[in-house]
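Fold this complex.
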Amino acid sequence: MSLSIQEIKKKHEARLMALPGVVSVGIGRTSDGQAAIIIGLDRSRPETEKRIPKKLGGYPVRFEIIGPVKAQ
Amino acid sequence: MSMRNILKENRPQLRSRANVVATGIGYKIVKGKKTSDLCIICSVKKKLPLSMLSAKDIIPLEISGAPVDVLETGVIRAFLGRTDRWRPAPGGVSIGHQNITAGTLGCLAKKNGQTFILSNNHVLANSNDASPGDAILQPGPYDGGKFPNDYMAKLHEFVPIVFLTPEPPDGCGIAKSVASILNGIAKILGRKTRMRTIVMQEGENLVDAAIALPLSEADVSPEILEIGMIQGLSEGELGMAIKKSGRTTAVTTGEILQVDVTVDVEYGSGRIARYADQLMAGAMSQGGDSGSAVLDNNKNLVGLLFAGSDTTTVINRIQNVFSALGLHL
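Structure:
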C-alpha cells in the first residue's frame, strides 16, 4: 500500500523544514490540479531546491517563493 | 433671489438655532408626500413642540419668500472607520492589549455561558507577555485607544505561543530547539487565574489565540463588519472560497490554496514560532488584520487569521482554536 500524501508530508517534514530558506511545507495542488507537496521558500534558494527530489513518495513537489511569514 | 442664494445668506442664522444639524435645498414634503415645490430643509436632531423652544430657536416657516421644511434626522455622525471607537464593537475593527500596536477583533464566542472576544494571543496577550485581567483597548493603542476611555475588555485567557530559538547567525544548521516552554508554564501557573493550558504544544503551535471578557456585553456586537452574522462552523478545505473582515484591509476574499501547512512565523525581535495544521491562502491581509475571523461563502466560521507574507495568508483552523480555549458559538 502506498502512503497518503499526508503521511508522506509528515515523514519528510522535519528534514524539509531544517533546510536553509524553507519557511513552510503544506499540501496543495499543481497547476493541473494534482495533489502536491508545496514547499514555501523565503527567497530564491537553488541550493535547497537541488537537495529535494522532484517527487516524494510518488507525489509531486512544488516550490513557491512566499517570502518571510510574519505575525500580522 | 435664487433658492441657493437665500440659503447661503441665511445658513448662519439657521445653523445658530438649537437642534439644527444641517441645512439644504430639497422638495417640500406635505403630509408625507414629496411635492414638486423646492424649499429650504432644516434638519434637526429632534422635532420639538414650539412651546418648548425659545423664540430665537424657532425655525421660521418662510425665509425671503422661500418655504422652509423641518426634518428630524437625529444626530449626524461621521462614517466610522475600522480604526475608530465602536460601541458596540463588531468583528473586524481595531483592538489590542494596552502594550501592543493594534490588531483586529475577530468575533464573539462563548465559554461556560459567558460571551468573550476572540482574537490572537499577539493581539490580546502581547505574545505571552501579559496577565489575565490586563486592559484591552478598542481601538488599539496605535489607533489612539487610551486607558481608561477606550478600555473595553479584560484579557481572560490565552494559549501560550511556543517560540523556537533563533537560528545561529552562521546558519550552520544546528537543529532549532524549543525554548522557554517551562518558563512560560511557570509564569502562567504562578498567577492567580482560571487560565489553563489545555493542549500542550511541544515545539509546535496550533493556534495564536486569546479571549477577552467585555466589561459590558452591550459594548460588543455579534456581527462581523460588512459580512454579517456568523451562521456556524466549517472545516477549511483545499479550494474553499473564504473572506475576512479586518482592521487594515477591510473585507477581502481568497481561496484556501494549502492545508496541513507547517510554517515558521516571525514575531519580531528574532522570535520564530512553528505552527502545524494551518490553512494557507493567497495574499488577503496586512499588518493589523491579525485576529480577523475567516468565513466561507455561507458565513460559517473557518479560521482565525494571524500571519502572512507578501504572497500568503496563514490561518488557524477554528476547530483548533475552539478546542484549545474550550469555546463554542
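Residues 168-201 of chain B have pLDDT under 50 and may be disordered.
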